[in-house]
Amino acid sequence: MPGTTLNFPYDSEIFNYSWKNTPDTVLLNMLASGAVVNDGEIARLISNGSNYFTTPYYENIGGDAGVYNGVNDIATTDLKGGTMSGCVFGRQKGWNAKSFINDFNSGADPMQQIVSGVARYWQKDRQVRMIKILDALFGISGDADFATHVTDIAVTGSASVADENKIGATTINDACVKSNGDHADGYSLAIMHSVVASRLANLQLLEFSKYTDASGITRALPIGTINGMTVIVNDNVPVGDTDSTGATGAKEYTTFVLGNGAMGLASAPVEVPSEMDRDPAKFGGQDFLYTRIRECIHPYGFSFKGDVATDVGIPDTTLCASASWERKMPAKSIMLTKIVTNG
Question: What does the alpha-carbon distance between residue 266 and residue 42 come to, in Å, rounded to a whole number?
Fold first, then answer.
């Protein structure tokens, strides 16, 4: 409802609308790549407010074709499939007035300043959580078929690194072919560390996207392309520097490569996404902004089997744990690849 805080007007409906409609450049590029999709079916299943859903899947039809000669019967093959389950997680975050003093004093539109800050916070939070889920999938134990989706050319526990241990012109393509064979052309998105992206740029293999701000200054975005594939640069991808004995050496950078429809996104309803409050006594008067989200990030081909009852908000310790996921679809139909390099 309309009100005033810190001498600027606050209307929850306007704030929520502006927050949800603030452009997320990274997500828009992920969606445009086709690797991440807004999943309408998941959105429908979670629209009733639950934190768990189950949806059917079907494997690609196959079998050998018979000879059509007017004599032979037509042989049929069973359509195979099953179900996959997913979860909705809830997160909340609040800020007090001191966190936004500079924003409130730095522009002519303080409402837009705070909306942009909140939107950027949750956009970054989603990227970090997606990376954690991807890392969890590749940490599932006992899945020999999916293990072929990992290409590791890094050296561990050593300071000596050769070019062959770093990402090169054919590394991504070779890894995708190793994972999915003749379906490898379906890969369309790579998420990598800035060190890896910088090497590809120096090799003139990666071209960063650019934008021009309101002042006419052209800047590079953490987004690029390589061989027609969208690249997102994010330093939250896993980075290691030790081997199994604990010896420290060159850093090992993980790059995740996703194919068409690899990840589904959907938002769940929240009755009060944001609200403001004021404590007139604390520090002589302090204002607070509280925000809440519920959403689903679901990897295609996997089923969530973690605990959804103990904490219905599904903390990251459960959501992003390898033990909470199991592969359901054949490995070759899952468009996910992990590459580990020393740069």
Answer: 6
**Cα gap 104→114, rounded to integer Å:** 8
Phi-psi region of 324 (alpha: psi -120 to 50; beta: other; left: phi over 0): alpha
**In the block, residue with structure tokens 């509280």:** 290
Cα 148 to Cα 165, 181, 268, 320: the distances in Å are: 18, 11, 34, 21
pTM of the model: 0.88
Stronger pLDDT, 299 or 3, i.e. the higher one? 299
Report the sign of the C-alpha dihedral through residues 37, 94, 291, 323, in that order.
positive
Got the DSSP string for 96-143?
EGGGGHHHHHHSS-HHHHHHHHHHHHHHHHHHHHHHHHHHHHTT-TT-
Is residue 232 helix, strand or coil?
strand
The Cα–Cα gap between 246 and 156 comes to: 10
Q: What's the sign of the alpha-carbon dihedral 266, 261, 148, 157?
A: negative
- Measured CA to CA, the distance from residue 322 to residue 319 in angstroms comes to 9
Backbone Cα Rg of the chain: 24
pLDDT digits (tens, 9 = 90+) for 86-101: 999 999 998 876 545 5
Q: Above pLDDT 90, what percent of the chain?
A: 61
Burial class from Cβ neighbours inside 10 Å (0-12, 13-18, 19+) for residue 209 reads: middle
Domains of the chain: 2-58+83-341 (3.90.1690)
